[in-house]
Model the fold of this input.
Amino acid sequence: MGVLRMHAPSKISPKILADGLFRLQFPAMGTRCEILYAANSMGAADIFRKNALDWVHRFETRYSRFRDDSLISRINDAAGRSPVQIDATDIHLFDMCDTLHFLTEGLFDPTTLPLSRLWDFKAKNPQVPSESVISEALSKIGWKKVHRENHSIFLPETGMGLDFGGFGKEYAVDRVTELAREHGLEDFLIDFGGDVFAAGSPPDASAWRVGLEDPRKQGQAKRIFSVSGMAVATSGNYRRFFEQNGKRYGHLIDHRTGFPTSNNCLSATVISRSCLEAGVLSTCALLDGTDRGLARIDRFFGAEGCVQNQNGVEWTKGIYEYLHDTRN
Done:
């Protein structure tokens, strides 16, 4: 979750499209967010608008590391000094981190902030850190080091840090999906910075269409997926990068080495039952590389995906049922 923040929720209104379809657009979690949804009345549309925006605002306020007053910032500031009290909702999130860390065999790790601080891809002149400082940062990483007991959490070493940026948007998509269903909405698409959940269909089609961006032609769709009742998430390594001494450094850092991924993967896209599942699997696929990444997706029940690399696109077998546009 970055520094692009939502305006006051009360000042954001949905736009009315054709056939009772509403569009809600707002900045949050460091990205642009959009919700398309069908509602029976303007009143019903506005109630959902308010509750969805309030939830996203509360989530970002509590868990963004870019806010000095957030829970995550307080935990990071107290690293090596003292535990921080957490509530039941926080415990649920940290339990989820436990589960994801286990299921991904450690590839998912929310304690990688020390590396993110070193590799500053937004700097005017980004630099490759020295091996000594990378080694020091690596020594501060490890979800299993985190102490949790008695409704508190403690990072035992100074310099450790949590960052929910690797899964926050996807988790938010899933929670707003639940909220939409609680409000009786059947046809909607939630898109938070390219992480998507689609339910039902738009008025003019039997399913929602989600584009797979071509890494070499940004902004253009290489393929089109037709999805309903499923999430789509893409992890890319081609938008944020820098070059030094003839070598390209992408923004996805492998916390096993401390350096950006060295395989030839450009992006990975996963279709799954939840956006969190899709997002974590797509990131793991980029870290794993094409063959191991696709194998990991294949092992996960209900998930299909593809990896775009320097040689083209490779797919899991079941993804073809979602392809709307089958051009080569």
Summary: Residues 162 and 287 are 20 Å apart (CA to CA). The mean pLDDT is 91. The longest strand covers residues 217-227. The chain has three domains: 1-65+163-200, 85-158, 205-328.
